[in-house]
Amino acid sequence: DIAHFYTNSLFALDDHIGITQYWDDKSTQLSLENRVKLAPVVVLAYLNQAKAQESYELAKLGKEQALELGLPELVTINTAIANTFNQPPDINNTITELSFACESYPERWVICNLLANTLFSEQRFTEAANVLENILEKKPNHTLLVVKLADSYVRAEDTENAELYVYALLKKYPKQPYVNLLAATLELKKENFNSALNYINSAMNSGLTSPQAKLIASLVNYQLGSNEQAMNHLRSLKSSFPDNPLVTKLYIAIQLRL
Fold this sequence. Notes:
The chain is an all-alpha fold. The protein is built from 15 helices and no strands. The termini are far apart.
């Protein structure tokens, strides 16, 4: 349903705050079954915001309600997350429990998708890609999963697989901003700076203004000697991330050129 698709889409995009805000605003308007279906996604969104108590309470409630409704896969997933609080909260314990749930219910792809996104959030990109590949064997036309898989390969610096998926996505969605960002990242790594510039400009002209996009835009313009443009993209990053070593290093390098 729409609520389930929407929250899973937000999770795929790492918008954990958006998920919990949606839950706070809309959960009371949903049926019990829909609340139980959304609970695992919201639980992990809380956990990614270091809101351990909220995560535990909702996982425990989700388990109880899933038992009431007779939904065994949701009993497993909520139990898995709740069990991680038997010791000091640790995302790695959550990953272990989610892996068990994914293996127990491989046909319930959303559970495995939660595992993939959790691995991704912990920068375990190759493992995330492996889980996503398995999901896509059963759901080959799920575009958001393909984008996440491409992103995982880009971040894992698996250039061969990254190119396979990114450029296939570009053929289908040439104006999609995030796909263009991934293409720009690949071209930057290959030192194809003019090509990277075209892709990042396409992404930003389509409204993508994330920190990742601004950093790639700054790096590309710096490599091409467009120092004013590079600095324009970097200023807000320097303000938002004053202690980030890459941002600081690039900021100083551009200042020395101006």
